[in-house]
Design a protein that fits this description.
The protein has a 6-stranded parallel β-sheet, sandwiched between helices. It has helices at residues 15-26, 51-54, 73-89, 101-108, 119-132, 134-144, 146-151, 157-169, 193-210, 212-221, 248-269, 286-298; strands at residues 4-9, 28-32, 59-60, 93-98, 184-190, 277-280. The chain starts with a strand and ends with a helix. It has 2 domains: 4-111 and 175-298, Rossmann fold (3-Layer(aba) Sandwich), CATH 3.40.50; 119-172, Histone, subunit A (Orthogonal Bundle). Strand 2 (28-32), helix 2 (51-54) and strand 3 (59-60) form a beta-alpha-beta unit. It is α/β, with parallel strands linked by helices.
Length: 300
């Protein structure tokens, strides 16, 4: 098959636009690797790519799940793997693009998501949570699996404990990450930290201008509460703090802070791929970068 092309990177670094520009040059079709853009109705807060931005390039794994439904990395692995094979079989280039590292690994490697957990460990974690409190348990998860911690709300104690169990007893960290299922080329979008932070803050301001608050209120009015998996996304979960007395202005600043912190963790995550080509998205325009990526890909 044609090599899988992967474009990963932190939020706000231009992954989606680059993927579209490259796809136009090499006959590619794009598979999203974003754990929240899978949900229908979560558009503004997830910075979901629009039809106009897609520029007629086929995109997959977007708007495939109702916000009332759960979706796991195992689900993603199954669907994304089938798409990669199907796109390649048609002679097109499968392009995996997104910032959810676990999803990228699920598609690229034969990870196990058995769902089997140690009952004794679960009991001990529940006791630890009662003793130390939910904030300490979220910090424990952050040290083990920052991607999972970023997705979960501190009040979602059940999922936090399950995520800790997974990290400790058979999740991704115990899988073989040295034998990819496909030949691939990996590119990571990045930019100077301060510029990335400024872009994030402008993006959040634009989300508010585009109607983020109304989008959140609309989801809540449909009975989609903050305990739902989809509402653990940054830009959604923070609005629960209205009940704690935070003003909208304070919540907006919290969204910016949480997004900056998440981007910082993504930058760290993408450093693990020693064979990836890191691209400073500020050094050239998007067309020049896309041409470089297409050339590098063509030489594999």
């Amino acid at each position: 098959m044609k090599s899988l092309l992967i474009i990963g990177g932190a939020t706000g670094t231009g992954k989606s636009a680059l993927a579209v520009a490259v796809a136009k040059k090499i006959g590619g079709e794009i598979i999203s690797a974003d754990s929240m853009q899978i949900y229908r109705g979560l558009n503004i807060g997830t910075a979901k790519i629009t039809q106009e931005e897609m520029q007629a390039i086929p995109h997959y794994m977007i708007d495939i799940v109702e916000p009332t439904d759960p979706f796991t990395a195992a689900d993603y692995k199954k669907k994304a793997s089938a798409l990669i094979d199907e796109i390649a079989a048609r002679g097109k280039v499968p392009i995996l693009c997104g910032g959810t590292g676990l999803y990228i690994n699920a598609a690229l490697y034969d990870l196990s998501f058995s769902g089997e957990y140690d009952a004794e460990l679960r009991r001990k974690l529940q006791e630890e949570s009662k003793l130390k409190g939910k904030h300490e348990m979220l910090e424990k998860l952050r040290a083990l699996d920052p991607e999972a911690a970023a997705r979960l709300h501190v009040n979602d104690e059940k999922r936090v404990l399950r995520a800790i169990e997974k990290a400790l007893t058979g999740g991704e960290k115990e899988n073989d990450l040295t034998s990819p299922k496909y030949p691939y080329r990996f590119f990571v979008t990045e930019m100077p930290r301060e510029k990335m932070y400024r872009r994030i803050e402008k993006r959040v301001d634009q989300m508010i201008a585009d109607g983020l608050i109304g989008e959140v209120e609309g989801l809540l009015s449909r009975g989609i509460g903050y305990d739902r998996q989809c509402m653990q996304a940054i830009a959604y979960k923070e609005w629960a703090m209205r009940d704690a007395g935070l003003s909208d202005a304070e919540i907006i600043e919290l969204i910016k802070k949480n997004t900056r912190n998440y981007a910082k963790r993504q930058v760290t995550w993408f450093k693990q791929y020693c064979d990836a080509i890191h691209i400073d998205m500020t050094e050239r325009n998007i067309e020049e970068i896309a041409e470089m990526v297409a050339t590098e890909y063509g030489e594999n």
